[in-house]
Amino acid sequence: MRKEKLLENIRIYSHSKALFGAIFLIFVVGVFMYVILGSNMFLISVDGNDRALVTVRNDMQAIIDMCGIEINEGDSVEFVEPSDTAGSLTVRRAFYVNVTADNYTETITVLEGTVRDALAICEVELGEYDEVTPSLETYLAGDMNIKVIRVSYETREVEESIPYSTKEYKSMEYLKKTRTVTQKGENGIRTTTYRDKYVDGELVESTIVSVKTTKKPVEERIAVGTSTAQLIEKHRLLAKLQAGEKTPPTEYEKVMVMQGTAYTYSSIEKYNVTALGMPVREGAVAVDPKVIPYGTILYVESVDGRFNYGYCIAEDTGGGIKGNRIDLFYESSTTVGRFGRRDVRVYIVG
What we know:
- This protein has helices at residues 2-35, 60-67, 115-121, 229-242, 333-339, and strands at residues 40-46, 49-55, 76-80, 87-92, 95-101, 104-110, 131-133, 144-149, 151-162, 166-175, 179-183, 188-199, 202-215, 220-227, 254-263, 284-287, 297-302, 308-316, 325-329, 342-348.
- By secondary structure, the chain is of the alpha+beta class.
- The chain has four domains: 2-91, no CATH class; 95-149; 153-222, Resuscitation-promoting factor rpfb (Resuscitation-promoting factor rpfb fold), CATH 2.20.230; 228-348, Beta Barrel (Barwin-like endoglucanases), CATH 2.40.40.10.
- Strands 15-19-16-18-17-20 form a six-stranded mixed beta barrel. The chain has a four-stranded mixed beta sheet with strand order 2-1-4-3.
């Protein structure tokens, strides 16, 4: 074993010694040619690989041919002639980059740069919201695919109809079993503002920016008749009397002295309608229907002469209005407060 190992080490040493000798010989020959024969030394760099060349030639094409270097379209060749120092030949390889924008792909040849530089070469201008992949500051590489995504936004307004609602209410102004539209309904208008996002010309997203009611709907009101022909005639007579002088009647059935109070609008909607289905109003008074029947035309004045309510009609009642009492409706809460509770003279007109 020791003998075989010794022989192996001798062979390795002999091989290394021979290789070193060959390299040394080449170096000596090169120096000899460079110094004695006037040859030129060049430093060759291609694709990141460096080497030295000693030759009597000093023109670029000859050096390229001697080194067997293939120059492709777009490659950069930098040549420096030798002087006091060695010359150099540097070859930088060009590579291809694909740029796609506006449904068109252009292939360009570049040596270096970023995505931003490639777009400039292709004369591609970017809009405010356009997107680019890879990013603009990414360094270029061979067979890179650059894509420009066109992004834009548009604002539009859409008008939509707001359906009106319908409300029915009872009314003594109309005969029983009749339905009369007293206020025609109208649809409203709602304007919605959208911000639309387009990607390469196609709508991909719509976002609501604002919603504004530009026209409110008008409620339709339908009166459901609750009255008789006789009661309607009473209201017509009342309107005629109220249009005349506000003085006690000369013709009446009888006169009653009653305890009078006053009331006005309620915050509860249902209490703003009389017992006979009419809206509360001045001229409509609350009584005990067992004492004064609904639909009776009256004339009311305070006994002390401070309040003259005038002609009115018995149309409403209340939980506290029992017996010889009457409650007068006033628009003003101030007047209601001033009236308080006092005796009134009630003329029964008929």
